[in-house]
Amino acid sequence: MSLEMKVEEHFKYSYRAVVKAVAQQTKNPLMDAITVVQADGEAQSTADLLGEDPYVKSSPYDVEGPEVRAKDRRRWLVYPDYHIEWGRTLFKVEAFKKMQADPSAMAQRGVNAVNRGIFDAILGVSEVSAGNFKVTGRGIMGKTTEGKTPNSGVGSLPPSNYVAHNTEGLTLEKLRAATEAAELENFGLETEDPVYCLITPKQKTDLLNIAAATKLNLNQFDIDQIKTGKPTTLLGITWIFSNRVPKNNSGERLVPLWTKSNVVAGFWQRLEGVINNTGKRNLPYLLTSAIMDCTRHEDAGVRVIECKES
Predict the structure, then answer these.
(1) What are phi and psi of 77, to 5 degrees?
(2) In 131-244, alpha helices (H)
(3) Residue 278 lies in a domain
(4) Cα-flanking dihedrals φ and ψ of residue 274, to 5°?
(5) CB–CB of 186/175 below 8 Å?
């Protein structure tokens, strides 16, 4: 039996198409909750992409048109120093034959892995131990790059954007404090900005208790959606459920609440997959990857609710 398992050109094209199809069918829950843009170059200003400009009052006798300039200080999407990737070498002829018979099964593994990386990059977290996540990156909860140029300065979410745990879990008072603070920062006339919140099963129980205590008029669909962990709207917030919500050093869960327009993800490369022959005995190699960065456009639209868990 020959050791060579050559990847024919037609299979390379078909596998790329399979990964694209699987990626479209596999839902990353955070993608619909943020503003997604196509990025290029070394860095891109979020203000240039979706910034709010002031208007100008001018005289009807002015012969020159108004000139509105972007703010000097900007938030930046920066080409990352890492790519989000999954790869696997097919060592046996049987494995390659299985790939040809059902390429979507192996493609799904790569798509799921990279989607988890995209999820963490959007949230701004990484897994420091099994099931334990900390704020370490950029994204919704991490650091931002701000200034006239992409290397001008780095800042964290201000302490005033945190709602203290007060030895309690998720409560109605905390939700009101977080949403009110975000709403008070909105002075525009644009379409109402959707609000999202990411919680774990612990806060899901708190949320159901809030609904029961306030005697909200919930239909069975709302209740079933919350119980099964499907994104659903309650109290004016769309709730997303995940076990990847980080904790602080004291063990409190850090529950992020944000408006869609205030979190921007730029993709230099969307989720893609390829299969090639490598130099390792000419074995087929599967690669799934994405290149992206995420940042807060404005701190005002992001709040973090500290939640004590039993």
Answers:
(1) -90, 125
(2) 172-183, 201-213, 220-228
(3) yes
(4) -140, 160
(5) no
Does residue 64 lie in a domain region? no
Strand order in the sheet with 195-199: 162-163, 302-307, 253-259, 195-199, 237-241, 232-234
Measured between alpha carbons, how far is 264 from 24 in angstroms, rounded to an integer?
20
How far apart, in Å, do the first and last CA atoms of the chain sit? 60
266 vs 264: CA distance, rounded Å: 7
Helix (H) or strand (E) holding 44: strand 43-45
Residue 107 belongs to what H/E stretch?
helix 103-123
160-172: pLDDT as tens digits:
999 999 899 999 8
Q: What is the dihedral of CA 277, 282, 284, 290, to 10 degrees?
A: -50
For the ranges 4-18, 133-147, 179-193, 278-292, the maximum mean pLDDT occurs at: 133-147
For residue 298, tell me if it sits in a domain: yes
Q: Determine phi and psi for 201, rounding to 5 degrees.
A: -55, -30
- Residue 172's closest CA among 209, 198, 197, 201? 209
CA distances from 209 to 160, 175, 221 (A): 27, 14, 17
Number of domains in the chain: 1
Cα(308)–Cα(268) distance, integer angstroms: 38
Write out the two tokens for 190: 């644009």
Residues in the chain: 310
Q: Which range of residues forms the domain containing residue 34?
A: 9-49+71-307
Mean pLDDT along residues 18-32:
89
Q: What is the pTM of this model?
A: 0.84
| pLDDT at residue 50 in the model | 57
**Residue at 63 is within a domain:** no
Residue 165: CATH number of its domain: 3.90.1690
> Which tens digit of pLDDT belongs to each residue from 51-87?
556 666 677 777 676 666 655 567 888 999 889 999 9
